[in-house]
Write a structure and sequence with these properties.
The chain is an alpha+beta fold. The chain folds into 2 domains: 4-87, no CATH class; 99-285, no CATH class. The chain has 9 helices and 7 strands. Bound molecules: zinc ion.
Length: 358
């Protein structure tokens, strides 16, 4: 029978799918998770009961021993088996040579993206107020409003799978999207991160190549990629805006102030962009330097190797790639030719040379 591995997180009390870097895991047969989830739900309800209230105490007294029995049965079940497994050799933990510099770049890029969002927020509010002035306030009762807001959130969740239908006349207005300072700051930060990647490459590879060519290739990359990235960020915002504004229009009693709380701006999103794109700047730098190396030394075989941080945040996409070596122009796994392997990826690759096997 196929089984999936989980680990027990003592801090949260949850079972989590096994990533990489854990020393212990529980092998749990499929199906048993349903029981565990049911117990977790019951425990949740139990913890909410007010035991000074006689009625609720009676419910607690009946449910608590039952729940204890179920937990006991699960732990004794032959379907669950604790396996001790050292996944990482502690002596071989990877240390990102750029970790310190990257942290600074993460912070810088997060601030740049947040600033872009901060510019957009008042513009959106102004446009909503001009478009639906009657929605600045509401005369619905608090209860009606709460139900309305809950419905708006539910419809927003559902809209992940459906198309928004409301036509927003100002959605494509240039003042909402053009932000020259954002474009310039983004490009410069990506370029500086790439340049740092090239410096690290130079220090590690110790083979003289024409670095002025590599640096100019990095500048071209930063310019082209910034254009693509900014468009991608704004497209995502536009889609999220379309959904949030639709929920606002379709929910009676929802005010413009409420609508602003549904907007797709936040530090989380800015940080995600920062981590992902700094990862990309470094791997792009390695690729560009590797291409120059291959050009100047055609007899050498240029290879790249994937490294994860090997901490407990490494995911199931990147974990198996750790240490993998492929040719400069090959994919590490289908469709993944270099980090980032996914959004929020903190991996890096290192380009080196090997003697060609004749
Ligand atoms: Zn990764």
């Amino acid at each position: 029978m196929a089984s999936k591995s989980y680990r027990y997180n003592q801090k949260t009390g949850n079972l989590e799918p096994l990533g990489y870097g854990y020393e212990f895991s529980y092998e749990i047969a499929p199906g048993i998770m349903e029981y565990i989830n049911a117990v977790k739900k019951t425990l949740n309800v139990l913890s909410m009961l007010d035991r000074t209230n006689p009625e609720q105490k009676a419910i607690y007294d009946t449910l608590a021993p039952e729940t204890a029995k179920v937990i006991d049965a699960i732990l004794k079940s032959p379907k669950i088996r604790q396996v001790k497994k050292v996944i990482w050799d502690k002596d071989k933990i990877n240390h990102d040579p750029a970790a310190k510099a990257k942290l600074e770049f993460y912070k810088k890029l997060t601030r740049i993206v947040e600033k872009h969002f901060d510019n957009q927020i008042p513009i959106i509010r102004g446009k909503l107020e001009a478009w639906k002035p009657e929605r600045k306030s509401t005369d619905l009762s608090d209860e009606q409003r709460t139900i309305g807001l809950l419905n708006a959130h539910v419809s927003l969740l559902r809209s992940k799978y459906t198309k928004a239908t409301i036509d927003i006349p100002w959605l494509l207005d240039a003042d909402l999207w053009s932000d020259d300072e954002f474009d310039a700051d983004m490009m410069l930060t990506l370029l500086h991160a790439a340049e740092n990647g090239i410096d690290l490459f130079e220090a590690a590879v110790a083979i003289g190549i024409d670095y002025s060519l590599v640096n100019s290739a990095a500048a071209t990359w930063a310019r082209k990629y910034t254009y693509k990235l900014v468009k991608g960020i704004d497209d995502t915002t536009r889609q999220a805006l379309q959904k949030a504004v639709s929920a606002f229009v379709e929910t009676p009693g929802m005010t413009i102030g409420d609508a602003m709380k549904l907007m797709p701006f936040g530090t989380d999103r800015a940080q995600t962009v920062a981590v992902t794109e700094i990862t990309r700047a470094y791997s792009s730098a390695n690729r560009l330097a590797g291409e120059q190396l291959a050009k100047e030394f055609p007899d050498m075989q240029v290879v790249k190797q994937w490294f994860t941080n090997q901490d407990d945040r490494v995911c199931e996409i990147c974990g198996p790639l750790n240490g993998k070596k492929v040719g400069l122009n090959e994919d590490f796994s289908p469709g993944i030719s270099e980090p980032p392997g996914h959004v929020n990826c903190r991996c890096w690759d290192s380009v080196t040379t090997e003697l060609r096997n004749e």
